[in-house]
Input
Amino acid sequence: MSKLQPVRGTHDLLPDRARAFRRVADTARTVAGRYGYHEMATPIFEFSEVFKRTLGDTSDIVTKEMYTFSDRSGAEVTLRPEGTAGVARAVISGGLAQHMPLKYFYAGPMFRYERPQKGRLRQFHQIGVELLGVAEPLGDVEVIALGAAILQELGVAGQTTLELNTLGNAGSREAYRGVLVDYLEARRDELSEDSVSRLGRNPLRVLDSKDPGDRAVVAEAPLLSDSLDAESAEFFASVRAGLDRLGIAYTLNPRLVRGLDYYCHTAFEFTTDALGAQGAVIAGGRYDGLVAQMGGPETAGIGWAGGIERLSMLADEPAPPPRPIALVPIGPEAEVETLAIADRLRRAGLVVELGYRGNLKRRLSRADRLNARAAVLVGEDELARDVATVRDLDSGEQEEIALSALAGRLAAFS
Ligand code: ATP
Ligand code: MG
Output
């Protein structure tokens, strides 16, 4: 029988990586909390309809990337490819829309059937925020500023650039759509199959195609900014004024789009060139029509999602875990007593490692391998006097400490 392998595009998170991931999520959660965004979690799978309705049936995710299966009752369910759809579903099914504005943070695994490569996996992890019920440009500014603050706190702000665009309101997009389709139709022969099939349904998606042929055509396409009406231009000016006031630098990227009808106004990405082709670390935008599209009330919304894999590759190594105290019983009688001492020390908050077997030498060399800060040697004659020997493993110095004072003395080592 062949050996069992992890599924392609999935990774085990061994402790070092788990710690790096947790640092990203914990930092993001803490900073989001300061902005009044609190954590929520939706199920890892939903009825497929939740994603089909929100992502649209021409998106890459829905056409090629979803992990969809029938459960035992025949219901068609999908492992979530992203977080916003589930949050919007929760807002509707939980009747939360009456408590606007809603401000949520989430972190967790997402699933997409993609071609695995560095920074692109089939099970990956995202942090994200959603702000619902705020139609004002201040909401856009806050959400972007929150992303920037998290990047700052992670120490990666210097490696990222904020790219910004506006899709305008529905009228502006409608006007642009006409101009764009005329242009693309004229160069139809040069477009990829995917783009041709999008032409009729959501031509804006062609603008962010990664196909080189499409890109050449797109490079000369008319700009959406030339189709903006006064209201849309004013909205965008307010967003930019807010970012300017906060000193958040950005570059305008007129090709940055999201193709679905409910996306409007602000679209943005924090990108890096430190990770090769996988440049986007945080991506987001305004999605005012999404909740209504799912059958809920008309609700403004804006948010972003960031890739934990990519963010943790940019960020510094997190602090190492605390160095443990190694307990070393000498002789069989001492062994069970050491258990009780370890238990007391752990309850006092210390990190304690217990050798499970071996003589003094072997246990001390294990303490070294664990990078222990100190060893507590517990022999029978010491136990008889209610003391233990504490050895500082960095300096080699030793002292005898009363068992009752042990936790206090060892605290000085951590
Ligand atoms: P890309 O253009 O890289 O495919 P996307 O537009 O599909 O990204 P979003 O759906 O906006 O990405 O997801 C937000 C963020 O999640 C991305 O910016 C990225 O950091 C991360 N991400 C998306 N897909 C993956 C993946 N397969 N593996 C790892 N991280 C991912
Ligand atoms: Mg993608």
